[in-house]
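Researcher: I'm preparing a figure for a lab meeting and need a structural model of a single chain. I don't have an experimental structure, so a prediction will have to do for now. The sequence is pasted below. Please return the structure as tokens so I can convert it later.
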Amino acid sequence: MQLNWIERLFILSPFRALLQRYWESRQLLAMGGPLTGAHVLETGCGPGFGIDLLYRQFKAARVDAFDLDPKMIALVRQRKRTGGHRTRLWVGNLRHIPVQDASYDAVANFGAIHHVVRWRQALAEIHRVLKPGGRFFCEEILSPYITHPLLGRLMDHPQEDRFDTPQFIFALQQKGFRIHAYRQLANLYLWVVAIKSHHGRHGRG
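Model: Understood. Here is the structure written out token by token.
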């Protein structure tokens, strides 16, 4: 699901960039450590703030990134972003990632999965494209926020089958992830670092 105009204003705002840089990404970095020299995928990259952080804060060597909205990918290409030719971009969605199995050392998700109607399928795809032992850095908005009578209408998120922390953690484990660490804020926001088991099962759907 693409963003509505309210979400688009927020995603493109300097406030969002500052929040992502000084709070959100630092939570994940403290939990999961740097990605020095890694090949990383960012899901739902928006205007590219996360790409910059993966290079500058996480120390990634290469970043691939995609977004459902072609306008967001166009914005990333227009910006003078960190990484240059080391960054590969495309328009795509989380349920069908067009890369081979075990392609990435890490996957980063800065709040894209709650936009996906069949979000468990997205987790299966992330598991598939990670190398064994690869890390999944995930920040998400939880169901009490999504289904709030006011906020839910303003943000225009899918309302059915949303997840709280136990449901999301369980789904990760079902797809073959081992939970390395997680934190939540007031049952509204979740940060989790999960690792693809070397012998974990692979689930789809």
